[in-house]
Write a structure and sequence with these properties.
The chain is of the alpha+beta class. The protein contains 4 helices and 5 strands; from the N terminus they run αβααββββα. The mean pLDDT is 79.
Length: 154
């Protein structure tokens, strides 16, 4: 009786471990949004130094146009042996004016995320398709032929 009970518990334990391996893994990357801190940043009142003190260093800083700091957060779900899928993304953009004061604070989410699916394993290019032999021997006699106009004999 004890052996059968131990076998039953062993099978339950193995099944539990097997099922837990199929659960998805949640990963959060980037800036962790604290709503209280985000709400404390006010246009016209804060400047670069106060924003960095409240929110920390930005994930990205714009190089062109208006000086904007981006705080990016990304949450993915990943099942074992499968590529991760984006579940949630938040982008907080803090724009500064010329004097370094906060001009605007904008927040966006998944509505701006674009999912790309590549078309095969080759990059399409313009022009004609050339085979291996044409690539190998295609320029023989084309460039710098002796005696031809523009060749070395001129």
């Amino acid at each position: 009786m004890d052996r059968a009970k131990a076998l039953k518990w062993g099978l339950v334990a193995v099944a539990g471990i097997g099922l837990s391996a199929c659960s998805s893994i949640r990963e959060t990357r980037g800036y962790i949004v604290d709503q209280v801190l985000v709400d404390s940043v006010a246009p016209g009142i804060d400047n670069r130094q106060s924003v960095e003190g409240a929110l920390g260093r930005p994930t990205y800083v714009s190089e062109y146009g208006d000086k904007t700091w981006y705080y990016i957060s990304n949450t993915t779900n990943r099942k074992p042996f499968v590529r991760p899928r984006t579940k949630d993304q938040t982008v907080l953009a803090v724009t500064f004016d010329e004097a370094g004061n906060v001009a605007s604070v904008n927040r966006s989410g998944m509505e701006n995320v674009v999912f790309l699916s590549p078309d095969g394993d080759e990059t399409p290019t313009l022009g004609r398709e050339r085979g291996f032999l044409e690539d190998l021997f295609g320029n023989i006699g084309q460039v710098g032929a002796g005696g031809a106009p523009g060749g070395p004999g001129v």
